[in-house]
Amino acid sequence: MDISRIGLIAGIALSSTLLAPAALAQDVPYETLELQRGMITLDTHLDTPEAMDRPGWSIMDRHDVRGDGTQVDYPRMVQGALDGGWWVIYTSQDPEGEWDYKRVRDFAVMRGMTIRNMIAAHPEQFELALTADDAARIKGEGKRVSYMSIENSYPLGEDVSMLDLFYKMGVRMVGFAHFRNNQFADSSTDPEGPKYGGLSPLGFELLKRANRLGMIVDASHSSDEVLDDMLEHSTTPVILSHSGAKAIFDHPRNVDDARLKRLAAKGGVVQVNSYAGYLREVEPSPERNAAMRALREEMGAPAEMDEATYQSYLAKLRAIDAQYPLVDRPDGNDFFKHLFHILDLVGPDHVGIGMDWDGGGGVAGIEDITDLPVITQALLDRGYSRDDIAKIWGGNILRVMREVEAKADPKPAE
Ligand SMILES: [Zn+2]
Fold this sequence. Notes:
By secondary structure, the chain is of the alpha/beta class. It contains 15 helices and nine strands. It has a single domain, classed as TIM Barrel. It has helices spanning 30-37, 49-52, 74-80, 101-121, 132-140, 162-169, 201-213, 224-233, 257-265, 276-279, 286-299, 307-323, 332-346, 372-381, 386-406; strands spanning 42-46, 84-90, 126-128, 144-151, 171-175, 216-218, 238-243, 269-272, 351-353. It binds zinc ion (ZN). Zinc ion (ZN) is lined by residues 1-2, 151, 221, 242, 356, 359.
C-alpha cells in the first residue's frame, strides 16, 4: 500500500487508475501465456485485502479496474496466470498519535482474519501457504497460492512478541516501516527525516524475532540506513517486496545501485514495483487530489460503508475521474526501465515482481493482473531464458523463503 495517508483503512488511491483511458488488451502470443502458466507466478505485494472488506465485494467476482479501481480477483488471476502471492495486512499510522497501539493492533488482526476468511470461504480456489514448498503443491492442486505479509509493523506496539501472533496467523513476511518513522525503524519518506538513523533498539529486537520465527525480512518503505542495518544483522537474505531503482528515478522510495548490489550479494531479491509516482517524475494533478481527499473526508473509508453508500461513493469517484482525468501517466516502458536496470545490475537470480496491485500500482498498458503476460513477453523479447523468467516470477523469492525457513528456530515465545 502506497497510497492514502488519510485514514486508518486505506481507500482508493489518490493516483488511482480508475477510469483512466489507456490500452488494456495487448497482443501477447498465446504461447507466452502458456509459458507463464507453466511457472509458479507470484507477486509479493497484493493490497487487495482492503477491497475484501468492502460491502458486496467478492474475490470470486470479476471486477473492472475502470469500474471500481481494483486490480486483483480470482477470475483475473486465472486470466493473467497469477498463481498467487503475498496478501498484505497494511495498517496506516496517520494521523500520528491519534490511535493508540491497541486499536491499530486490533485493526491489523481483523485484516488478517479477512484474508483467512477469504481463503476459508473458497477452499476449491485458494489455500493458505505457509512454506516455500507449499507453492508448487498448491499450484499442482489447481488452487491459488495464498501467503500473508504485514506491511508496517506499527500495529505490533512495543511488544515484539506480537510478531509471534501474526506468525501463528500465517504471516511469513514482515515490512518494518511505512510512510512515517515508527517505533521500529525510520521510513524512507518521513517528512521530518530520520529518527534513529536506521533500526531503533526495538527494531533490532524485531529483526531477531523475525529471523528466529522464520519470516522474510522486507525493507521496502524503510530508509536506506534501515536496509543497511538489516543487511548487516539479518541472519537471512533481505528482500524489497515492492521497490524500484534510484538510478532510474531519484525518489526516496527507490534504492541506489550500491545497496541493491549488496542486497543481492547477500542472497536477497528486489521485487520491482509499478507505483507511478516512483517510476518517474509525474506531473501533479492537484485538483484531482484535492477532490479525492474531499471525497474521503466526506464519505470515509469504503470498508465502513453499506452497499448503497459504496455505490454512490463509486459514482462520485467516476465523476471526479471525468472532471479531473490524470494528465500524466507512466506506462509499461517506465516500469521496464526499472525492471531491466535492476536485472542488468544484479542478474536474474535476484529480481522478482511486486507490482503494488490495489495499493496504487499499475501503469498504462499494465493495468491489472490480466496484463501480466505483457511482462513475460518483455522478458522473452529481451532474451531471458525460460528458467530465468521462472526465477523472476517466483523461483527467487521461494529460494529466499527456503533459506529463511532453514534458519528458523520457532521456539515458543518466552
Ligand atoms: Zn507500499
